[in-house]
UniProtKB/TrEMBL annotation:
Belongs to the nucleoside triphosphate pyrophosphohydrolase family. InterPro entries: MazG-like_dom (IPR004518), NTP-PPase_MazG-like_C (IPR048011), NTP-PPase_MazG-like_N (IPR048015), NTP_PyrPHydrolase_MazG (IPR011551). The keyword Hydrolase applies. This is Nucleoside triphosphate pyrophosphohydrolase. It comes from Roseovarius aestuarii.
Length: 271
C-alpha cells in the first residue's frame, strides 16, 4: 500500500497536490477517468477554469477566487503529470521554465538594469524580449506565436496589436470608425443578397474591426463584452422579477411590455 502521509499533510501544499495527481493517474490504482485523459481532453477544462477565475474577480468574490485559482492550478499539475507519464517533462521543469523567464524578462529587478522606467517602457522592453524569444524559436513572422486556442475576439485584438508594431495600423480611431461603417454596410447588403457563408464572412469582418476599435480606444474587448453580458443578465432578470409581480412569465408577455420593463430596469440602475 502506498504511504498516504503526504496526501494528508496540509503543510506540504505543492508536493501534496503533485502526489495526489500522481496517484490519480497511477495506471494500477488510480481513477479510471483521470487515467484516460490526455492533453487534448483536458485543454477545454483548462480554458474553462481560467474564465471562472476571471468571473470570480469580476464579481469581487475573493473566497470563490481562492477555490477557482486552486482549480486552475490543478489543471497545470494535471498537464504536467500527463507529460511526466509520457516522459516529456515534469512539474519542476514547468516551474523552473517560468521562473527563468521571469528573471530574464525583469533585469531591472533581478539584474543590474535601472528600475527608473515607466510601466509603458517596461511593456516595450517586455515585447522586445518576447520578439527575441520568438526569433530564437524560428518564429520570424510578425504574427507568429499568437495562440490559436485564444478566444477569437481576444486573438483578433492580439493579431492587430502585433501588426501595429510594424506600422500596419490606422493612424487614429476615426479611421477605424469609418471602416466599421463600411463593414456594417457590406454586412447589410450581404444579408439581403448573399449566401450564408458570405454573410458569416462579412459578420466576421465587422467583429474584427470592432476589436481594432477597442485597441485604439484602449479597451479590453473581452472585458467589455463580459461586462455587457453581465449587464444584460442583470436587466433581464429584473424584467423577470417585474413580470412575476404581475403574475406573468416572459413567454406570457410581449416585446412591447418587456421593452418598457427594460427601460425601467435601466432607469433604476441610474438612480
Amino acid at each position: 500500500m502506498p504511504d498516504d502521509a503526504l496526501i494528508h499533510d496540509a503543510s506540504q501544499a505543492m508536493p501534496r497536490l503533485i502526489e495526489i495527481m500522481r496517484r490519480l493517474r497511477d495506471p494500477d490504482a488510480g481513477c479510471p477517468w483521470d487515467i484516460e485523459q490526455d492533453f487534448a481532453t483536458i485543454a477545454p477544462y483548462t480554458i474553462e477554469e481560467a474564465y471562472e477565475v476571471a468571473d470570480a474577480i469580476e464579481r469581487s468574490d475573493w473566497a470563490e477566487l481562492r477555490g477557482e485559482l486552486g482549480d486552475l492550478l490543478l489543471q497545470v499539475v494535471f498537464h504536467a503529470q500527463i507529460a511526466d507519464d509520457k516522459g516529456l517533462f515534469q512539474f519542476e521543469d514547468v516551474a523552473n521554465a517560468i521562473a527563468d523567464k521571469m528573471v530574464d524578462r525583469h533585469p531591472h529587478v533581478f539584474g543590474d538594469e535601472s528600475r527608473d522606467k515607466s510601466a509603458e517602457q517596461q511593456t516595450r522592453d517586455w515585447e522586445t524580449v518576447k520578439a527575441a524569444e520568438r526569433a530564437a524559436r524560428a518564429q520570424s513572422g510578425t504574427l507568429d506565436g499568437v495562440a490559436v486556442g485564444l478566444p477569437a475576439l481576444l486573438r483578433a485584438f492580439k493579431l492587430q496589436k502585433r501588426a501595429a508594431r510594424v506600422g500596419f495600423d490606422w493612424p487614429d480611431a476615426s479611421h477605424v470608425l469609418d471602416k466599421i461603417t463600411e463593414e456594417a454596410t457590406e454586412l447589410t447588403e450581404a444579408a439581403d443578397a448573399l449566401s450564408p457563408e458570405k454573410v458569416e464572412e462579412e459578420f466576421g469582418d465587422l467583429l474584427f474591426v470592432m476589436a481594432n476599435l477597442a485597441r485604439h480606444m484602449k479597451v479590453d474587448p473581452e472585458a467589455a463584452l463580459r461586462a455587457a453580458n453581465a449587464k444584460f443578465i442583470r436587466r433581464f432578470e429584473r424584467i423577470e422579477t417585474l413580470l412575476a409581480d404581475r403574475g406573468k412569465t416572459p413567454d406570457q408577455s410581449d416585446l412591447a411590455e418587456m421593452d418598457a420593463l427594460w427601460d425601467q430596469a435601466k432607469s433604476e440602475e441610474r438612480r
